[in-house]
């Protein structure tokens, strides 16, 4: 122990001998004011049954003051009135000083001051808002107290509720520090939680303005179980904002362990612990590592080694809550992952996607958590494996991109599947082209129409000419034969022009359409050739039907339903030779039947 510490330990021991018993609870505040607040005339305040302020009951008392619940009749409300317990000038001055400090600090987490005045006997009184609720000390001592219920609604996390309370305390201290005021007595006893969850930092009786440190006399003030090392030295010039940081760390320590930072048997032992400045021990305590580290940093012996400000302390608490939320989310994701391992295929995939979403959300909340990152990678890899099993390369690659460093082996698997699927698509496209080119459905309907129209017209005209020739009322010579040929060619040519898209849409349809064109042209050329050689109509008809039979056979190889045309044309050709007098009738009938067969074949093909 250095010379300065020895000096102040001796000072504390002397002070203890004069009136600080060893058995004093280490949570009780030592308040021994040495200076007197500058005298200021205070307005008189009537404080009795006949005045506006009517005492109701005592709320509590400390070493220097007592607080009463008072009814303010003019406003019909209850207020808290604090008055000095002693007539000593220093005690009364301390109350005035506290009132002025509290009055200068207006913040949602600080109790509003309504008035400062004095009674008829000169005793100063401080009129404040009456806060109904429980102290943090009362809640910590009773974990099953009803007062916890509104604080844990929605999450049920007791530690979270305690940290949220401490965050509100930090906000009050931040404001006070912005006004150069240090509290010096932060502890669970001085934190009040109202009925509706509001948090107040109480008891500013030993607070100090940093601008007045140089004029403050040496005095040991504070709570022995919480004293920062510089407070134990009783030198006010050593106190600054980081003194309250130490007290915040001590309060957090008690929240985590149930013990004060200087958990000694009495005041002197607590003072010695404070002077030694050893960080409080977490031995045998299961506490979050982040909060343990925060307590250790906040309660460093030298204030230069502590967290720089209350704001930084609050940010660490807020970060812990985010990390704690991340852990809760990750725990849900772990349950989903376990469910996936025990589920069927469909259920497993849903659970894996749920787990992936949970781990991703948790990692966004806590980006540096290596455990959650690894769990996300494991989940994503399992999802990728399922996508690969389903042969969904796109799905697998999309999921894998969620990893910052995807495994090379998994990338190789996806690339192999992509190559395999590309080869299959190429083969399928090639097959589709082949099937498309072999399709004749587009030409079936126009050909059917051409056949029924051409067959009816050409067959009818041919039969008319032939019948007239048989009856002797007309002739059936080259002109009549070529007229029938011209009708057939015209109708088929018109069909080709009108329905050329369907007739020539595919390779198969082009082949069939071409075969019919060749057939019609060949029959016309056969008639022209026959009549050029001087053949009789029966000989010309026989030749033309024979050519049609041969060409029909060729067409029937691609369009099987028209195969009956072949024997009909062949028999017609034979009949024209054997029965020349009926050759023209037979030829006309054969042409009509042929067109009818072709119409039926293409009509069925189009359905």
Descriptive labels:
20 helices, 607 residues, 58% helix, Transferase(Phosphotransferase), domain 1, Phosphorylase Kinase, domain 1, alpha+beta, three-stranded antiparallel β-sheet, rod-shaped
Integer average pLDDT:
82
Distance between the termini: 107 Å
The CATH topology label of the largest domain is Transferase(Phosphotransferase), domain 1
Which architecture of the largest domain would the CATH scheme give at its second level?
Orthogonal Bundle
CATH class of the largest domain: Mainly Alpha
Residue share in helix:
55-70%
The largest sheet, given as strand count, sense and whether it forms a barrel, is:
5 strands, antiparallel
- Percentage beta strand: 5-15%
- Uncertain segments are none
Number of domains: 4
Short summary:
The chain has helices at residues 3-19, 89-103, 136-141, 158-178, 229-232, 241-257, 267-276, 289-298, 310-341, 345-365, 370-389, 393-400, 408-438, 441-471, 478-498, 500-503, 507-532, 537-556, 565-578, 583-606, and strands at residues 53-61, 65-72, 77-84, 113-118, 124-129, 133-135, 181-182, 191-194, 199-201, 208-209. The chain has 607 residues and is α+β, with helices and mostly antiparallel strands. The longest helix has 32 residues, at 310-341.
Provide an overview of this structure.
With 607 residues, the protein is α+β, with helices and mostly antiparallel strands. It has 4 domains: 1-26 and 133-308, Orthogonal Bundle (Transferase(Phosphotransferase), domain 1), CATH 1.10.510.10; 36-130, Phosphorylase Kinase, domain 1 (2-Layer Sandwich); 321-434, no CATH class; 439-606. Helix content is 58%, strand content 8%. It has helices at residues 3-19, 89-103, 136-141, 158-178, 229-232, 241-257, 267-276, 289-298, 310-341, 345-365, 370-389, 393-400, 408-438, 441-471, 478-498, 500-503, 507-532, 537-556, 565-578, 583-606, and strands at residues 53-61, 65-72, 77-84, 113-118, 124-129, 133-135, 181-182, 191-194, 199-201, 208-209. The strands form 3 sheets. It has a 5-stranded antiparallel beta sheet, with helices on one face. The longest helix has 32 residues, at 310-341. The radius of gyration is 53 Å and the shape is rod-shaped.
């Amino acid at each position: 122990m250095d010379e300065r510490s020895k000096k102040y330990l001796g000072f504390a021991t002397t002070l203890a001998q004069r009136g600080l018993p060893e058995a004093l609870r280490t949570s009780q505040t030592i308040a021994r004011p040495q200076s007197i607040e500058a005298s200021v005339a205070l307005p008189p305040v009537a404080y009795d049954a006949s005045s506006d302020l009517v005492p109701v009951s005592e709320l509590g008392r400390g070493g220097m003051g007592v607080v009463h619940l008072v009814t303010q009749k003019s406003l019909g409300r209850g207020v808290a009135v604090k008055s000095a317990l002693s007539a000593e000038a220093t005690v009364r001055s301390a109350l005035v000083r506290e009132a002025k400090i509290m009055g200068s600090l207006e913040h949602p987490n600080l109790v509003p001051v309504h008035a400062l005045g004095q009674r008829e006997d000169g005793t100063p009184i401080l009129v404040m808002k009456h806060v109904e609720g429980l102290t943090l000390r009362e809640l910590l001592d009773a974990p099953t107290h009803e007062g916890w219920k509104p604080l844990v609604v929605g999450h049920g996390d007791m530690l979270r509720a305690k940290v949220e309370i401490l965050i509100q305390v930090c906000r009050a201290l931040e404001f006070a520090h912005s006004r150069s005021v240090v509290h010096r007595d932060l502890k669970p006893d001085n934190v009040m939680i109202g009925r509706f969850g509001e948090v107040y930092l109480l008891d500013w009786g030993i607070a100090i303005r940093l601008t007045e440190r140089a004029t403050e006399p040496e005095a040991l003030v504070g709570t022995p179980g919480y004293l920062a090392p510089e407070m134990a030295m009783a030198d006010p010039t050593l106190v600054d904002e980081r003194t309250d940081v130490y007290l915040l760390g001590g309060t957090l320590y008690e929240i985590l362990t149930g013990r004060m930072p200087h958990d000694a048997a009495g005041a002197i032992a607590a003072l010695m612990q404070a002077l030694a400045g050893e960080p409080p021990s977490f031995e045998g305590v299961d506490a979050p590592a982040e909060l343990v580290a925060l307590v250790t940093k906040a309660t460093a012996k030298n204030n230069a080694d502590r967290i720089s400000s209350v704001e930084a302390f609050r940010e660490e608490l807020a970060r812990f809550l985010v990390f704690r939320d991340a852990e809760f989310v990750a725990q849900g994701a772990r349950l989903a992952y376990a469910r996936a391992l025990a589920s069927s295929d469909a259920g497993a995939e849903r659970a894996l996607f749920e787990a992936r979403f949970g781990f991703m959300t948790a990692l966004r909340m806590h980006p540096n958590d290596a455990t959650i990152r690894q769990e996300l990678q494991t989940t994503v890899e399992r999802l990728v494996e399922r996508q690969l099993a389903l042969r969904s390369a796109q799905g697998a690659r999309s999921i894998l991109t969620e990893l910052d460093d995807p495994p090379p082996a998994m990338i190789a698997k996806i690339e192999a599947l992509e190559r395999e699927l590309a080869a299959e698509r190429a083969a399928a496209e090639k097959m589709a082209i082949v099937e498309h080119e072999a399709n004749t459905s587009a030409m079936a309907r126009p050909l059917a129409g051409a056949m029924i129209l051409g067959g009816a017209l050409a067959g009818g005209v041919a039969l008319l000419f032939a019948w007239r020739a048989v009856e002797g009322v007309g002739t059936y010579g080259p002109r009549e034969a070529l007229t029938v040929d011209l009708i057939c060619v015209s109708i088929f040519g018109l069909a080709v022009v009108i329905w050329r898209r369907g007739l020539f849409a595919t390779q198969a349809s082009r082949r069939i359409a071409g075969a019919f064109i060749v057939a019609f042209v060949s029959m016309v050329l056969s008639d022209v050739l026959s009549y050029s050689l001087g053949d009789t109509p029966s000989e010309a008809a026989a030749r033309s039907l024979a050519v049609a039979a041969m060409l029909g056979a060729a067409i029937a190889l691609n369009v099987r339903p028209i195969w009956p045309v072949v024997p009909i044309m062949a028999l017609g050709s034979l009949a024209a030779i054997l029965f020349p007098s009926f050759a023209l009738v037979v030829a006309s009938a054969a042409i009509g039947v042929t067109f009818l067969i072709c119409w039926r074949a293409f009509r069925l093909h189009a359905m």
